Each structure stands twice: as structure tokens, then as C-alpha cells.
Structure to design on (536 residues):
């Protein structure tokens, strides 16, 4: 057993079973398990809060540029 | 022991019901943490006072960190690729948080060399490993939108300073009631700096471990629904073959892209490093600037926002218009904007801010789009390792950009007495540097087939290494 990255193959045609049947459709939310759906909301909310905190603070400081 | 096993690549394969949209926040947890490196100016003066050292001696801490970022990304890239994102993110978290804690010890004992060793050396290794750790995984999860995916993650590196700047000020004010965040001349005590470094070390370790827990690699052969690899084959500048990291550095494409990144970063860093004094100098008349130091600080913050936004917006746009055209925009329109800034930037503050902000958005876009460009050229096989090696261009630009600008400005006069015309030559020099990058980008062609991983060997080797 090794955890080495498997070497890739160049494909001549798409593999029939490449789209997993377990609902791992990255563009839709229909196949996402409930616990991962919750995790998605929590993770993106955390990101939005962190960035929002930073942007609001910077905008307050930057407003001095035009208000003197 | 169980924890170490969980870090292995084969234990990090996504289970049923997992969503690939969890990968960007996992990557952001790391990049928002290590992006703190751009917020060191908040406590720089306090460090100068505490160690009774020169600005240069304290600046060396940041320089060591950036050099180690480039070196560790270049040397550790293959290790990151082979061991997967979880182990790489974990290692990055240990180095980054450990760097803060050793740095805190250095401040507490007034040993500057310990800060060099901690934040500079150890933290720098954490920076390099952390920066490249999610890139390969993102590209594999988003073969249809690699620019968007890497743009989202690398946006975090720009956003890290946005979060760390106010947070650091507020933490120092918490640990030292005499300190007033943002007030010119206010200096935090040594104890407050120790508290700041220790707190940031712990907070960033926890945040990065969230990323470690969430990140997963896609199952072998996975692809998103509706994604047709045949469409990739139809695009002439996107390969479906794979090139190893060792072979990639033997190709002209790697070095052309190295030049593209180097020139884009050199030009951008020239402005970023000088942003605060530059806007004051541009609007100085009779020895007095119309832009106050506090407002100049706001301008620096505004540049950070555009630097961050450019990473996401332009990198996502590259998925639609292509990697080569977007770099023609960064470098070509960048040249025009540098000329406009040099000739008309002094006309009004709004115009100056507009030109500078768009330039900085291109600077950020250049960073965020390069992994997708590498994927297009070299395939997904060892794109993380190749990206790591390309980041040496960043380290080189980090030295070249400020050196070029400072050499010109030193010849013009003393800081605080310069006016806008002192910047004409350095800015026009940046136009020439961008022109070199523009030509390099034009010369990029698909990689020759002799550098591709041989198909039969790849299949055979792959069969032997299918551990997942």
C-alpha cells in the first residue's frame, strides 16, 4: 500500500462510470448528504463573516481618503 | 496514531454525498490564515521599539518568510503532491502556528534571532506548503472551472491581510490598554506583542485544522456531471496529456510562464510596497501632501480589497476567455495603466486610486490564474509540484520589484520630500518589464509530446500505485 498519487492515463473516450451514481454532482445540491449540506452552510458562512469583517474595517479606514 | 493515519491520502477520499463546494472553504481556511503575512506592518513599529532595532532588521523577518515561502513551495511541491492535501495542510498548520509561538518566545525573551527562526524560517515553510497544498486538489475537483476554484482559494491569501490587520490591532489594544489601534505613534508593549503572536498562533492553527478536517480528494475517475473531457481536447491550448514536475522544468513553456509571473508580480509589488508614501508624494505641493497618513493607510487597504477581488474575478473570467488572453489583458492593459498613472495620476486622487486599484486587481489575478494556466499546459498529474517550482518567480520578484523602485526613488531625494515626477521613471520601467512578460506570454505554445508521460508506462505504473 502506498499513498502515492496514482499516475494518470490519457483517455481516448470518457469512462462510462465516471459520473458517480452516488449523487456526487458538483453542480447541483440534490445529491449532497444532509450532514455535508449543513457543513456547506456553516463553512461558507464562516468565510463570509471573516471576509466581511475585514472588508468593513478596511472600507471604514479607506473612506478617509475621500472625506479628508 | 489514528490521527496520523487519517492524514493519509487514501483516508481522505471523498465519501458518498460529499460536495466539491466544500473544498474552496477548506482551502480558504488555510489561505486566509497564511495571508496574515501581508499584515506585518500593523505591529512593525512596535517590534522596532521592543527590540530597539532598525526598520531593516525587523523587515528581515518578513523577507525570510517570503524567501522560505518560495523555497519550501519549490522543494516541497512533490512531497505535497504525493502526500495529499490533508497531510500538507496539517504540516503547514504546524509550521505556521509553531512559527508564531517561537516568535512569541523570541519577543518574550527579547531574542530577535528567535523571531527570525520562528516567524521567518518556520512560518515561511508553513506559508509555502500551505499556499500550494489545496491547489492540485481544487483543480481535480473542478476540471470544468479550474480558474474559479483556484481563484477562490488564492483570493484567501489576499483576504488574509484584510482580516489580520484589524484583528491584530484590536488584540494589541486588548493586551495593552495604552495602545490605540490605527493611531499614528501609538506603540504596543512587548507583553502585548507576545499575547498577539501566541493568540494568532492558536487561532490560525484551529482555523487551518478545520480545513484539514473538511478537505477531501475526489475518488479515482471522478468527474462532475455534465463535464465532457472531449471539450477540453477541442481547445488547442488545453492539454489532456500529463507532464511530470521534473519534465516540466525542462520545457520552454515553464520558463515562459515563470517570466510572465515574475514580470506581473515585479510590477505590482513595486506599487504595493510604496503605496502609502506614493499617494502622499503624488499629491504633495510646497512640501505638504494633500493626503494625510491615515488616508494613505486607507488607500493601502483599498488596494488589498482589489488585490483580493482580482484573484477571484479575473481568474474566473479566464475559464471563459482562456488563460493566454487573460494574461494579455493583465500585462497589456497593465502597461497602458502604468503609463496613465505616471502621466496623469497626479491630476486627481480619484483617478490615481482608480488606476492603482485596477493594476492591483491584475496583480492578484496573475497569482490566481497561474495554477489553471499550468493545468492547461502540463495536465493535472503533478500540477501542484509544478506550481510550487514556479513560485520561485514570486520570491525573485519580491526582491526585484522593491529594489527597482527604491533605487530610482533614492536617487530622487529624501523620503517625505518627493513629488509625483519622481515616480515617472520607475513606473515607465515597470512598463518595460510588463512588455517582456507580454512577449513571453505570446510565445507560449502547447508542450511538445516528448515531455508527456508515456501512455503505456503511465497505465502500468498507475496500476501498481492504485492504493485508493
Amino acid at each position: 500500500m502506498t499513498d502515492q498519487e496514482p499516475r494518470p492515463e490519457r483517455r481516448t473516450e470518457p469512462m462510462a462510470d465516471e459520473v458517480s451514481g452516488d449523487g456526487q454532482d458538483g453542480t447541483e445540491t440534490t445529491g449532497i448528504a444532509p450532514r455535508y449540506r449543513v457543513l456547506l452552510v456553516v463553512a461558507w458562512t464562516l468565510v463570509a463573516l471573516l471576509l466581511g469583517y475585514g472588508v468593513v474595517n478596511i472600507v471604514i479606514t479607506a473612506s478617509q481618503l475621500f472625506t479628508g | 496514531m489514528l490521527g496520523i493515519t487519517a492524514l493519509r491520502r487514501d483516508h481522505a477520499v471523498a465519501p458518498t454525498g460529499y460536495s466539491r463546494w466544500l473544498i474552496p472553504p477548506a482551502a480558504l481556511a488555510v489561505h486566509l490564515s497564511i495571508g496574515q503575512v501581508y499584515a506585518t506592518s500593523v505591529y512593525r513599529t512596535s517590534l522596532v521599539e521592543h527590540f530597539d532595532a532598525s526598520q531593516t532588521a525587523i523587515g528581515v523577518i518578513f523577507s525570510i518568510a517570503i524567501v522560505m515561502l518560495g523555497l519550501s513551495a519549490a522543494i516541497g511541491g512533490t512531497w505535497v503532491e504525493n502526500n495529499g492535501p490533508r497531510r500538507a495542510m496539517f504540516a503547514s498548520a504546524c509550521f505556521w502556528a509553531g512559527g508564531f509561538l517561537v516568535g512569541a518566545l523570541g519577543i518574550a525573551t527579547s531574542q530577535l534571532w528567535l523571531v527570525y527562526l520562528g516567524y521567518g524560517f518556520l512560518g515561511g515553510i508553513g506559508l509555502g506548503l500551505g499556499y500550494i497544498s489545496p491547489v492540485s486538489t481544487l483543480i481535480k475537483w473542478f476540471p470544468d472551472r479550474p480558474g474559479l476554484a483556484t481563484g477562490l482559494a488564492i483570493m484567501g491569501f489576499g483576504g488574509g491581510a484584510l482580516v489580520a490587520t484589524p484583528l491584530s490591532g484590536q488584540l494589541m489594544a486588548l493586551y495593552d490598554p495604552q495602545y490605540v489601534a490605527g493611531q499614528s505613534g501609538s506603540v504596543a508593549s512587548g507583553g502585548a506583542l507576545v499575547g498577539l503572536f501566541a493568540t494568532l498562533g492558536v487561532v490560525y492553527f484551529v482555523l487551518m485544522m478545520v480545513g484539514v478536517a473538511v478537505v477531501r480528494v475526489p475518488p479515482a475517475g471522478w468527474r462532475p456531471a455534465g463535464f465532457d473531457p472531449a471539450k477540453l481536447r477541442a481547445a488547442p491550448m488545453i492539454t489532456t496529456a500529463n507532464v511530470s514536475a521534473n519534465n516540466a522544468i525542462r520545457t520552454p513553456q515553464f520558463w515562459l510562464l515563470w517570466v510572465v509571473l515574475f514580470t506581473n508580480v515585479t510590477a505590482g509589488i513595486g506599487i504595493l510596497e510604496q503605496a502609502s508614501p506614493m499617494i502622499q508624494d503624488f499629491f504633495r505641493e510646497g512640501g505638504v501632501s494633500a493626503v494625510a497618513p491615515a488616508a494613505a493607510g486607507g488607500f493601502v487597504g483599498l488596494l488589498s480589497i482589489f488585490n483580493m477581488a482580482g484573484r477571484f474575478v479575473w481568474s474566473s473570467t479566464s475559464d471563459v476567455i482562456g488563460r493566454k488572453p487573460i494574461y494579455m489583458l493583465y500585462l497589456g492593459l497593465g502597461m497602458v495603466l502604468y503609463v496613465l498613472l505616471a502621466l496623469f495620476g497626479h491630476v486627481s486622487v480619484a483617478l490615481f486610486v482608480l488606476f492603482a486599484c485596477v493594476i492591483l486587481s491584475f496583480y492578484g489575478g496573475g497569482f490566481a490564474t497561474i495554477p489553471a494556466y499550468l493545468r492547461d499546459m502540463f495536465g493535472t498529474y503533478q500540477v501542484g509540484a509544478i506550481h510550487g517550482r514556479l513560485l520561485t518567480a514570486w520570491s525573485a520578484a519580491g526582491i526585484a520589484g522593491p529594489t527597482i523602485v527604491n533605487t530610482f526613488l533614492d536617487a530622487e531625494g529624501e523620503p517625505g520630500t518627493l513629488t509625483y515626477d519622481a515616480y515617472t521613471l520607475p513606473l515607465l520601467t515597470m512598463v518595460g518589464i510588463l512588455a517582456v512578460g507580454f512577449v513571453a506570454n505570446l510565445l507560449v505554445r502547447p508542450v511538445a509530446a516528448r515531455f508527456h508521460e508515456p501512455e503505456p508506462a503511465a497505465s502500468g505504473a498507475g496500476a501498481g500505485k492504485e492504493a485508493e
